[in-house]
């Protein structure tokens, strides 16, 4: 059965504003006129799921981070996104995108923060929007994330995993107004996707 609503991955290095963008996007879907734009988007924070379900198989001492058991994680996510006959509308928020099967996702948005000073500040002292905790990255973990952002590592990984034209979009996420604009832009894309796919979903029951 074709999806009624698009599934989107918001990806990028830690600190680029994935969670904030996802939350704003969901709020846009809630505040839209239901008679013309009923697209019930749902935020799926992979970090939150991995933590709540303890989907870790080891701990990397050098990078000071838990290593996720990707098989368990993917099995769990597949159950979630298949609920409700897989109608779609999921906004998947994680710093990795190339582990997700292509059939799950309609758009991959790579958020970027190419202002090194802003990015450094976010990683070392900014508070996470969803928890209020301080990131406090340092040492190799800090340097690897800075290098990944400077060289656009996640953007390249996304393009390799999703080679179709237009499937991967890079958006700058440096200033607060850019985050708001990005959410608006993705919401507009969602509305257009539903219009473009209305016939396909309507004909699916025959």
From TrEMBL:
One Pfam family of this chain: AAA_18
Lineage of source species: Eukaryota, Fungi, Dikarya, Ascomycota, Pezizomycotina
Chain segments carrying region NMPbind: 45-68
Top-level EC class as recorded in UniProt: transferase
Entry keyword annotation includes Transferase: yes
GO cellular component: cytoplasm; nucleus
Oligomeric form and interacting partners: Interacts with small ribosomal subunit protein uS11. Not a structural component of 43S pre-ribosomes, but transiently interacts with them by binding to uS11.
Region of interest called LID, as start-end residue ranges on this chain: 134-144
Primary location recorded for the protein, binned into one broad class: cytoplasm
Cell location: Cytoplasm; Nucleus
Protein name: Adenylate kinase isoenzyme 6 homolog
Gene Ontology BP terms: ribosomal small subunit biogenesis; rRNA processing
Keywords: ATP-binding, Cytoplasm, Kinase, Nucleotide-binding, Nucleus, Ribosome biogenesis, rRNA processing, Transferase
Molecular-function GO terms, alphabetical: AMP kinase activity; ATP binding; ATP hydrolysis activity
Catalytic activity as recorded in UniProt: AMP + ATP = 2 ADP; ATP + H2O = ADP + phosphate + H(+)
PANTHER family: ADENYLATE KINASE ISOENZYME 6, POS9-ACTIVATING FACTOR FAP7-RELATED
Binding positions (ATP): 15, 17-20, 135
Family assignment from sequence similarity: Belongs to the adenylate kinase family. AK6 subfamily.
Native organism: Knufia fluminis
Role description: Broad-specificity nucleoside monophosphate (NMP) kinase that catalyzes the reversible transfer of the terminal phosphate group between nucleoside triphosphates and monophosphates. Has also ATPase activity. Involved in the late cytoplasmic maturation steps of the 40S ribosomal particles, specifically 18S rRNA maturation. While NMP activity is not required for ribosome maturation, ATPase activity is. Associates transiently with small ribosomal subunit protein uS11. ATP hydrolysis breaks the interaction with uS11.
EC number: 2.7.4.3
Source taxon at top rank: Eukaryota
């Amino acid at each position: 059965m074709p999806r009624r609503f698009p599934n989107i991955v918001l990806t990028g290095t830690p600190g680029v504003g994935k969670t904030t963008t996802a939350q704003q996007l969901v709020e846009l879907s809630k505040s839209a006129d239901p008679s013309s734009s009923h697209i019930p988007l749902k935020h799926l924070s992979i970090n939150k799921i991995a933590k709540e379900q303890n989907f870790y198989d080891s701990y990397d001492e050098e990078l000071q981070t838990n290593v996720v058991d990707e098989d368990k994680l993917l099995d769990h996510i597949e159950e979630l996104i298949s609920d409700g006959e897989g109608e779609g509308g999921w906004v998947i928020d994680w710093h990795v995108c190339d582990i997700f099967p292509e059939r799950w996702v309609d758009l991959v948005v790579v958020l970027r923060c190419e202002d090194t000073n802003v990015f450094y500040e976010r990683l070392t002292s900014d508070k996470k929007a969803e928890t209020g905790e301080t990131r406090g990255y340092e040492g190799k973990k800090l340097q690897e994330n800075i290098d990944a952002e400077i060289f656009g590592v996640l953007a390249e990984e996304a393009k390799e995993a999703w080679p179709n034209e237009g499937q991967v979009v890079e958006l700058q996420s440096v200033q607060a107004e850019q985050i708001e604009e990005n959410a608006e832009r993705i919401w507009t894309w969602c509305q257009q996707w539903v219009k473009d796919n209305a016939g396909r979903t309507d004909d699916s029951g025959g």
